[in-house]
Amino acid sequence: MQLRALKIMIFSVITVLAAAQNSFAAGSGGIRVELPDSEAFGKGSAFVGEADNPSAVYYNPAGLTQLPEGNHISGGFSILAPSVSYTDFAGNETQMTRQNFKLPHFYFVSDFGVDNWAFGVGGVSSWGLGTSFAEDSFARYNATDADITMIDSMLTAAYKFNDQLSFALGVNSVYSTVNKAKKLAQGGLADGDFNLKGKDTAWGYRLATHYKMNEHHRFGLMYRSPLPLKYRGKAFLHELNAGAGYSAIFGDDHFETNFAQELELPQSVALGYSFQPDNKWTFNFDIEWFDWSSVEYDLVEWTEVLTVNQAAVLNAGNPSDRDWKSVWSAGLGLEYAWSDDFRLRGGYYYHTTPIPDENIDSSLPDANKHGITTGFGFDVTDNSTVDLAYSYLVYENFTLDNAVGSTFGANLDGKYEQIMHMGLVTFTYDF
Fold this sequence. Notes:
Blueprint: H1 2-20, H2 38-42, H3 56-59, E1 71-87, E2 93-95, E3 101-110, E4 117-124, E5 129-132, E6 145-160, E7 165-186, E8 189-212, E9 217-224, E10 227-238, H4 246-250, E11 255-265, E12 268-275, E13 281-290, E14 297-298, E15 300-302, H5 308-314, E16 320-321, E17 327-339, E18 342-351, E19 369-381, E20 384-395, E21 398-400, E22 414-430
Antiparallel strand pairs: 1-2, 1-3, 1-22, 3-4, 4-6, 5-6, 6-7, 7-8, 8-9, 8-10, 9-12, 10-11, 11-15, 12-13, 13-17, 14-16, 17-18, 18-19, 19-20, 20-22, 21-22
């Protein structure tokens, strides 16, 4: 059995790494997308203190020691359907292009027959961005498309010191791609096209602990290290017009050059509490701190030699201020065991935006968010379970009146309204 579990673990690692090469856009309107598991998400994504299913690989790997002896495999996917509406000060409304995104999640956990130990591997897409506006919209000179895709691959080991206290150490990597597009104003003539594509992989670690005070109270604590990405790729300019002087500057009606761009995913600390007053009810509460203050500006470095005029065109508005701030998020969740094999869930979560109003633009129209969740879990057999969850996410409406985009001839000022529907399904099998 141990050899079989080891083969599955190796296959799982390969599967996760392969998935990283074909990751899905997140389309959240924000860069954090936490959809690792249906059971946890149905409880408002408050799961750090409970952490007693395979998705603890993500939420709190120290909780893996709570799982029964043997092997546990879990996987599924989520669907996101965002909606963004922009209204300028003259009352003209623009809808973001409708998009649906699919994100997979996968975990395998085993003790390999070793007492007091649990080992896990997982793959999720917990960060990402996907916004898209028409090429003739108000956003065309700022961003028609902005996609950041990420797959977070995790490998972890947890050790149980006694029946109450466990500790875990995990290593994780993030494979990410970036794809940005916009139009180039050419002096009243037909617009040109600008596109930037790059990729990188970052490595980090996680430290976690889980404490079970008694049968009613559980606590979890986890630290995630920063993940420093440095995208490398190419920028492409097309449809350059001689009348605007661009084709003379770049030597043709198209041009490409190499670039590098840094983005650091923040370090974070998550604290969770789970209260189970009886065998029917479970109540969870999580709070998490994200150190987004590391994002001070957005700088594209051109890694090939450019002429003075080429550099002047490409560096218009580069670097741009970001000045993001550290933020908190919180989640509340509950579960009611309707019967021995059927459980109902509900929750609420709140995320604050790290972006100051003066630096928000159409590529990332982020705001404080309120989400409600619901879901259920059903034991199909003694060793197989299906979980489903749904969330309705509302962004607080905000009105922009800043200078972002003015360098390129864009006017992004106006009112932004956003909502998102999210659905998840997860299948778990124990053997």
